[in-house]
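Translate sequence into structure tokens.
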Amino acid sequence: MKKTLSKIGIVLIVLISAFVVVGFVLPTKYTVSREVTIHATPEAVHRHVGNLDKWEAWSPWKEGDPTLEITPGQKRSGVGASQSWVGEDGDGALTVTMSDPDQGIEYDLAFEQGKYQCKSAMLYDATTDSQTKVTWTMSGDTKTPFIGGYFALMMDSMVGPMFDRGLEKLKGVVEDHGKKISPKSTQ
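Result follows.
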């Protein structure tokens, strides 16, 4: 019995040691990226992405944390537009650093009172006259040895589904808005 317990103890020590060693060599940088094709022009997409007041209609974050309270910044669209939030899952802020109706937006993100920072973007690629591929990305560096590598590994599975949900909602909002203002709907 003692031999069996000794073997189990050794195996556990080896497994824990391997977990720690792997954690220290894992990369701490991460990138999450998702895309969707929307039947609309980049400019039509930008009307819903480039103005932070319109994010509530498609943003997935309140679904994930219903306690989320968003505080708008002084500027709501274009470079310098910003907002902050606080909720059960933490706090954060974003500031738009690039805004172009043909290309998309880029923005800086800060979480947990600025402790964690990353870059994000929603970029447009007009695939045809009436379709736009929208790519939502987020990249950063956890800069935390050991646990940061595991956190970076999990980032895609934590954030990716929210990006998928938000892009599908954005597609619905933009395409529904397009139907309401199309010439066919006025006949």
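Note: Residues 147-181 form the longest helix (35 residues).
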